[in-house]
């Protein structure tokens, strides 16, 4: 999964448009993109969107945060539509995942869904306190599929006046990004890069996405359909990377009992083999 496109939960029209694109996943949003008075209607519309399932996309639903008191009602409303997963905003750590997982178990059983099917992706850096919970996700639930970092709400939590200058995040946000990446790696789940908000700056989007892939992120969240193709392309291995990976795998296949090898004048070892398999999508 490379691209996860947010779609307002109260807009079937935007859902239809998003479904025509090539995003790997659509996140139907019940949180920030839906005003309070429209949330009940958005739950009903979201269930209809899930049941329609017009394309091959994975379908996630971003519910409201636990501190709103609306999360359980959101889950109860949309689980009959069998979403592939739930996005939990403002997550504080592994205990939040365990709580949501408990609710999902009961709701899956009530809806005739195999227990354990619905995955959880957490937006894990939206408050200052959440940063200190990043180490608690490891082993918290087999449902946990990814950790996404976010800057917009974190800015408000910090009381900051700006997040970035010249397209470069300031140090608190770089810290949140990097810690989220490491937490996801430690938990062995997908690290998901934050949305790019300068909608028409496609060159900047590509640059940021390539930097995310370079550092280890495997996917990016998106807020506009025209970002999808750029992000998907940026996460694809280059021809040079594919060629290198194939050579590394071939070298170890020819020397299965070796821990280290010499390849093109460079020492390679088993971590290089794991990296090569990841580039080619091999287990």
Automatic annotation (TrEMBL):
Residues the entry annotates as binding Mg(2+): 126, 153
Cofactor(s) demanded: Mg(2+)
The keyword Signal is assigned to this record: no
UniProt keyword Disulfide bond, yes or no: no
Domain HpcH/HpaI aldolase/citrate lyase residue range list: 2-225
Record: residues binding substrate: 62, 126
Swiss-Prot/TrEMBL keywords: Lyase, Magnesium, Metal-binding
Family note: Belongs to the HpcH/HpaI aldolase family.
Family matches, as PANTHER family: HPCH_HPAI ALDOLASE_CITRATE LYASE DOMAIN-CONTAINING PROTEIN, LYASE BETA SUBUNIT, PUTATIVE (AFU_ORTHOLOGUE AFUA_4G13030)-RELATED
Name of the molecule in the record: Citrate lyase
Originating organism: Bradyrhizobium nanningense
């Amino acid at each position: 999964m490379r691209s996860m496109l947010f779609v307002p939960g109260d807009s079937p029209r935007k859902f239809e448009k998003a479904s025509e694109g090539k995003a790997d996943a659509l996140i139907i949003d019940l949180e920030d993109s839906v005003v309070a008075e429209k949330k009940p209607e958005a739950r009903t519309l979201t269930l209809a969107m899930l049941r329609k399932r017009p394309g091959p996309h994975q379908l996630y639903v971003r519910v409201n945060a636990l501190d709103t008191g609306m999360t359980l009602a959101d889950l109860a409303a949309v689980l009959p539509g069998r979403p592939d997963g739930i996005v939990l905003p403002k997550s504080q750590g592994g205990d939040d995942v365990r709580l949501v997982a408990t609710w999902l178990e009961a709701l899956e059983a009530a809806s005739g869904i195999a227990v354990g099917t619905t995955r959880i992706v957490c937006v894990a850096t939206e408050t200052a306190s959440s940063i200190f919970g990043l180490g608690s996700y490891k082993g918290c639930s087999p449902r946990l599929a990814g950790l996404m970092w976010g800057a917009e709400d974190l800015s408000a939590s910090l009381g900051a006046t700006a997040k970035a200058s010249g397209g470069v995040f300031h140090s608190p946000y770089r810290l949140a990004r990097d810690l989220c990446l490491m937490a996801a790696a430690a938990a062995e789940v997908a690290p998901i890069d934050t949305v790019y908000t300068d909608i028409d700056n496609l060159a900047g989007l590509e640059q940021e996405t390539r930097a995310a892939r370079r550092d280890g992120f495997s996917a990016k969240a998106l807020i506009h359909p025209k970002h999808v193709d750029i992000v998907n392309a940026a996460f694809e291995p280059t021809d040079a990377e594919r060629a290198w990976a194939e050579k590394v795998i071939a070298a170890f296949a020819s020397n299965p009992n070796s821990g280290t090898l010499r390849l093109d004048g460079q020492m390679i070892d088993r971590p290089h083999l794991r990296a090569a398999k990841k580039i080619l999508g091999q287990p």
